[in-house]
Amino acid sequence: MRRKIMVLFDPETEYAVRFMEYISRKGSIPLEIHVFTDFDRVKAYIMGGRAEILLVSERVMSDEISGWPVERIIILSEKAVRDPGERYPHIYKYQSSNDVVREVMACYGSAAGRERARTEDEIVKPVLRILGVYSPAPSVPASAFALALGQVLARSSPVLYMNFEGFSGLSGLFHENFEENVSDILYSMRQGEKDIAPKITAAVRRVGELDVIPPCLSGQELIGISFREWEKLFEVLRQETAYEYLVLDLGDGLGHLRDFLESSDRIYMPAPESIPEKVRTDAFESWIDQCGIPQVRDKIRRLRFSSEDLPKDRDRYAEQLVWTGLGRIAAGIADEV
Fold first, then answer.
1. 73: how many CB neighbours lie within 10 A of its CB?
2. S-S: 106 plus which of 40, 59, 117, 309, CB 3.0-4.6 Å?
3. Contacts of 193 (CB under 8 A, 6+ apart)
4. Residue 92 and residue 242 in contact, taking contact as beta carbons nearer than 8 Å
5. Residue 212, SS3?
6. Are the beta carbons of 244 and 159 closer than 8 angstroms?
7. What average pLDDT score do residues 113-132 get?
8. Which of 165, 195, 176 is nearest to 82 (CA)?
């Protein structure tokens, strides 16, 4: 019995070439895969009735294509957030080719597809990893590092950044007045709305390749939010989006510091250099011991950098971070995550 045939149609030649290179290297895919960048050629192939699955870029999807004789149409989406109300299943385009193929097979639902889609821990979609950034020393530029780390990781994976400081100042850094922010998402959740993913899409802003959920002007606006509500939001991100990393810029403004630290897979802590900052860090680590959460200590990685590693110009500050000494530190971290 012949293998099922999947056709990828994307006019972006560079993407198509990279995908074919992956297929050439990978010899164990239980699908026969053909890649097209030209509309007339892919149409002729499909109309010949020789394919079961069509993976098509959202840029070229049309009513005509929806009528083509294939068993399953899957959309290559350029947005990391999935909208459960869409007619066709969507797969995030800019994840690894391996993950694209695994998600295609999971969507198609064939026996061979299900078998190949499983990893050793039975996970089909990428696991969302939570990376916390925190410093008990207020003069240490922890937020600058969190933004740099998020942007570096976003070069190769879908990443979402959230700021939990009392006063983030992100509106000034991005030179933008945010129409929607995290409070709109949380309000919808409190009202019992089921489709939260579209709310996330509406609120997200892009810095380079990094997605950012804007915070409120002041963390005091969210002081009554329970950690259980934050957990529900994180669960939506796990289940209904394609983000692989969630970078949490942790401050003391919203409370629940212990819960956020325990929920993080790794914690990056800019290390102080002066005596006042050193004693604050010592106090923080004593607090960890008093709370009885020694596992948090094992997650912490101390980082050393100074103000010399930061951009000097406020214009495009966030984008400049990746080219500074701070960005180089973040790049070294990204290779280890």
1. 17
2. 117
3. 199
4. yes
5. strand
6. yes
7. 55
8. 195
In this predicted structure, the answer to whether residue 104 has a pLDDT above a threshold of 90 is no
Phi then psi for residue 231, to 5 deg, are -60, -40
Residue 116, token pair as written in the block: 């190949």
Q: What percent of the chain has pLDDT over 90?
A: 25
Residue 81 gets which letter from DSSP? B
How many whole angstroms separate alpha carbon 286 and alpha carbon 205? 37
Chain centroid to CA 190: how far? 24
Helices (H), 2-154: 13-25, 39-47, 63-66, 97-108, 111-117, 142-153
Lowest mean pLDDT among 16-20, 21-25, 66-70: 21-25
Q: Using H for helix, E for strand and C for coil, what is the string for 275-310?
A: HHHHHHHHHHHHHHHHHCCHHHHHHEEEECCCHHHC
Distance, first Cα to last Cα, the chain? 42
d(CA 38, CA 54) in angstroms, rounded, equals 14
The CA radius of gyration of the chain, in Å to the nearest whole number, is 22
Here the tokens at position 177 are 């007045």
Place of tokens 């840029």: 59
d(CA 73, CA 67): 10
Residue range 181-209: average pLDDT? 84
For residue 146, CA distances in Å to 3, 137, 267 come to 46, 15, 11
Query: How many CA atoms are closer than 13 Å to the CA of 148, on its beta-carbon side?
Result: 26
* Per-residue model confidence (pLDDT) at position 115: 40
Helix extents (H) in the chain: 13-25, 39-47, 63-66, 97-108, 111-117, 142-153, 170-174, 182-190, 197-203, 227-240, 257-263, 275-291, 294-299, 317-320, 325-334
> Letter for the amino acid at 239?
Q
Residue 11 burial (CB count, 10 A): 14
pLDDT of 110 > 50? The answer is: no
User: pLDDT digits over 227-255, tens only?
Assistant: 999 999 999 888 878 788 999 999 776 67
Which pLDDT band holds residue 112 (cuts at 50, 70, 90)? Answer: very low
Please count the other Cβ atoms lying within 10 Å of the Cβ belonging to residue 78.
12
Q: pTM for the complete prediction?
A: 0.65
